[in-house]
């Protein structure tokens, strides 16, 4: 923890200096990361692991977001990133034993979720990230360089056509809300017949389009996903294109209010060479700080995986 604090304090003080000269704190974080990479600035530690570096940068970005320069963006918490990395290991165990897997995050933000997974599966991931926000993707790019994780980054609206080959796995903390570009939305099966389309529905459809047959998709979804006025269309779409593997309700204490609660939603793209799952895992994730409860929960996941 000491190295993480030292790196964070260095980034923090440097970012605050930039903030005083008419830049935002997050602009200062970006300038500091660039300075470290260019050799203009030296970190106060001799060496640091990829995880120590990622966590220190994450702390600085979190501080910047709390200062409201990016109020509509939320970073995926570490505990969730590690949990999803565990799920990836379970679902793609056979592929990981044979070599690399390809992962796409179509709404990567600063990349914390994707980088957490990449650090856990170090050297076994070929990753692609897409982000429309200019500042966030620059922060992701500099972070990737500093933690030495290779990644292809695309600065674009992920709901437009992508220059991406189909992947083994999609992971995404889904952006929730209405999608403003109605012309683009019309090209989707899940576009709303009346009014505006839900962006999170369109992201699910787009993600399936860029997933290999038999590939997996792990989404963080609003807990109310299947209670909306467009839920019936989503159900019909998923029944046609994917198998639902699991819905895991996340602990309430992870969220500020009930309306912000999320679940982990796991899909598998249909394949004629594969059979549908025998059982959908419906579960409630225990408090992640309770090690004993989480250990029992992991055993439950392993048993489900063996029966699947």
UniProtKB/TrEMBL annotation:
Name all DNA methylase adenine-specific domain ranges: 76-291
Alphabetically, the GO molecular function entries are: DNA binding; N-methyltransferase activity
**Known InterPro entries for this protein?**
DNA_methylase_A-5, DNA_Protect_Modify, S-AdoMet-dep_Ade-MeTrfase_prd, SAM-dependent_MTases_sf, YtxK-like_N
Keyword Methyltransferase assigned to the entry: answer is yes
Where's the YtxK-like N-terminal helical domain? 41-65
| UniProt KW keywords | Methyltransferase, Transferase
Question: What superkingdom heads the lineage?
Answer: Bacteria
UniProt GO BP: methylation
Name of the protein in its database record: Class I SAM-dependent methyltransferase
| Species | Ureibacillus terrenus
């Amino acid at each position: 923890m000491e190295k993480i604090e030292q790196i964070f304090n260095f980034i923090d003080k440097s970012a605050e200096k930039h903030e005083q000269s008419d830049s935002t704190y997050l602009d200062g974080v970006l300038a500091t990361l660039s300075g470290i990479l260019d050799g203009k600035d030296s970190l106060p530690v001799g060496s640091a692991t990829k995880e120590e570096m990622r966590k220190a940068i994450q702390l600085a970005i979190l501080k910047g977001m709390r200062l409201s320069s990016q109020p509509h963006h939320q970073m995926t918490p570490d505990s969730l990133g590690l949990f999803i990395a565990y799920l990836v290991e379970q679902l793609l165990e056979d592929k990981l034993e044979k070599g690399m897997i390809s992962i796409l995050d179509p709404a990567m933000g600063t990349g914390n979720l994707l980088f957490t997974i990449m650090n856990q599966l170090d050297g076994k991931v070929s990753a692609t990230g897409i982000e429309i926000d200019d500042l966030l993707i620059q922060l992701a790019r500099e972070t990737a360089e500093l933690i030495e994780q290779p990644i292809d980054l695309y600065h674009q609206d992920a709901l437009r056509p992508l220059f991406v080959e189909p992947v083994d796995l999609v992971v995404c903390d889904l952006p929730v809300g209405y999608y403003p570009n109605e012309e683009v939305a019309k090209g989707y099966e899940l576009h709303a017949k009346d009014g505006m389309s839900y962006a999170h529905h369109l992201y699910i459809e787009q993600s399936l389009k860029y997933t290999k047959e038999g590939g997996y998709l792990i989404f963080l979804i609003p807990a109310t996903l299947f209670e909306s006025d467009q839920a019936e269309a989503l159900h019909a779409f998923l029944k046609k294109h994917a198998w639902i593997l699991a819905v895991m309700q996340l602990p309430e204490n992870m969220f500020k209010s009930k309306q912000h609660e999320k679940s982990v939603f796991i899909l598998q793209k249909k394949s004629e060479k594969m059979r549908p799952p025998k059982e959908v895992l419906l579960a409630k994730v225990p408090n992640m700080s309770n090690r004993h409860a989480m250990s029992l929960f992991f055993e439950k996941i392993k048993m489900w995986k063996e029966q699947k």
